[in-house]
Amino acid sequence: MPMSAPESVQVLVQNGTLAEVHWEPVLTSMVRGQLQGYKVSYWRERSLQQAEAQQEEQQVLAFSGNRTVGRLPGLKPYSLYTLNIRVVNGKGEGPPSPNHNFETPEGVPGPPSFLRIKNTNMDSLTLEWGPPQDNNGRLTG
Question: What is the pTM of this model?
Fold first, then answer.
């Protein structure tokens, strides 16, 4: 099993749904076998709109070979995420890097939760709608 974790983990957030993670490779002597790749584990801690934690299921992406960069697609906008990275050889995974937090920026809000037409007249009508289920940021109008 590998003895060391990747170091110098950095996250470059591309947009509300995509981030790129970079790391320093583990020294060959610390891999203790044939390097198979790296595993990035990440999870959403919470929306940046809500104070309480609502941690979601951990996701794992595997990057084969001696890569030092990977892309994390499908993130939710306006959220706090945590990740760590492990090196993998033929016998298993090494220890995880220290957890690294990053935030995604605001995104486009979801559609209104409902839309109703009320008080129709010959030349006007009144609309009523509900807030979106996913704000993906601060609503401004």
Answer: 0.85
